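Intended use. Records like the one below are meant for learning the mapping from a protein sequence to its folded structure. Do not use them to infer anything beyond what is encoded.
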Amino acid sequence: MPSLTTQVREVAAHLLPDGASTGPEVARALGLSTRLFQLELEKESTTYQKILQTTRQLLAETYLAEGQLPIEWIAKLLGFTHTSGFSRAFRRSPGTTAQGYAARRIRTEAVGDPGTNGSR
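Structure written out for the chain above:
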């Protein structure tokens, strides 16, 4: 059986686009009381907020790397009501804006991996 952290990440990712990805909502989806949910996460040395932040960051990087969605849509898929909130949250982790991250990924792919001399 997957760890609670893994289960929380999966449920939170599923609930994010609806804006229902709160700790109590995720706990309910997992069949746990809010308090038991918190206690079990403490046993795994984490919190719901840490898992949510990591999940959003990984999804954001994936969506940006794919380059198919506008940033406004990515923000909504990650449960942000405004693009500005998404932009602030994104900037905290990689130290760049979402637009900058996407542009850098596109340039990296256009040039190719230095170890492959630009070929794929």
